[in-house]
Amino acid sequence: MDLEVITNILYATIRTGTPLLLVALGEMVCEKSGTLNLGQEGMMLLGAVAGFITMYQCDNLLIGFSVAALVGIMASLVFAFVALNLNASQVAAGLALTIFGTGLSAFLGADYEGKTINALPTLAIAGFEHIPVLGKALFSQDAIVYLSWALVLGAYLFFKHHRAGLAVRAIGESPGVGNNLGLPVMRTRYLAVMFGGALAGIAGAYLSLAYTPLWTQNMTSGRGWIALALVVFASWRIERVMLGAYLFGFASIMHLVAQAFGLAIDSNLLAMLPYGATLIVLIMLSKNKQKLKMYEPMWLGKPWHKGH
């Protein structure tokens, strides 16, 4: 296998892992505030269809991604009101959002099936893109890939060194104690949920505006669920989310790797790898529940109201 093949595999791994990284990062921030949102798949689909329709009508990628983020935020606000204000089950509210988003996206995108748009262009960094092996993978990506790296760094610094990040973590561990200390529990949780919704919308739009680029029904193919498992796999740590996203991205392009090695493996079997890897990871994690509890926010998924 020559260097060009390795370069293309690394390049494809990063592109494939980017939507997973975005939605998983948003969900991690959400969960660090103690809120479990299982509606990532639905918000991704809504972002994908909203971004594609906007781009098709306006021919402006910035507006397309902005609308996708806004749609993700609006969907997350519905979840936040039901789960946080009405104290409904966060699991049920998230599942309802996924079902709603799947159905609504299919309805809105029915007239756009098979239509094409101009894809998000790559932004090669002059002088670096020709570096052997890593040049194309790291320095010839599109703007959303670079944005995802900036968001990872920003989130890491936010939770490690910023007082607001420490407040989010404190609320996730015990919102009652946080409230007694004067922390704005509900506002913080709302902002965390909205951040997760915005990234889910952008992740969905990345699929329809850059990765494919076209709209097809259920085009996320379960990536929202994989991202949820990825947060647990990463033990709610920012740096491990990035690594996990690219590992799952690599599993998703195993058909390219098999072709590079000349392996005759059924394509349907290879398509199962990301989901099989998800199951394996969850089974492995379930065997060490004590270690998992060390990193999981103590109030994750539990209802809370002032005076609780």
From TrEMBL:
Residues spanning the membrane: 6-26, 62-84, 91-110, 143-159, 190-210, 222-238, 245-263, 269-285
Species: Pseudoalteromonas carrageenovora IAM 12662
Cellular component GO terms, alphabetical: plasma membrane
Keywords: Cell membrane, Membrane, Sugar transport, Transmembrane, Transmembrane helix, Transport
Top-level taxon in the UniProt lineage: Bacteria
Name of protein: Putative glucose ABC transporter permease protein TsgC13
Keyword Transmembrane: yes
Membrane topology: Multi-pass membrane protein
Lineage of the species this protein comes from: Bacteria, Pseudomonadati, Pseudomonadota, Gammaproteobacteria, Alteromonadales
Subcellular location as annotated: Cell inner membrane
CDD domains: TM_PBP1_transp_TpRbsC_like
Keyword Zinc-finger assigned: no
GO molecular function, one term: transmembrane transporter activity
One matching Pfam family: BPD_transp_2
InterPro entries hit by this protein: ABC_transp_permease
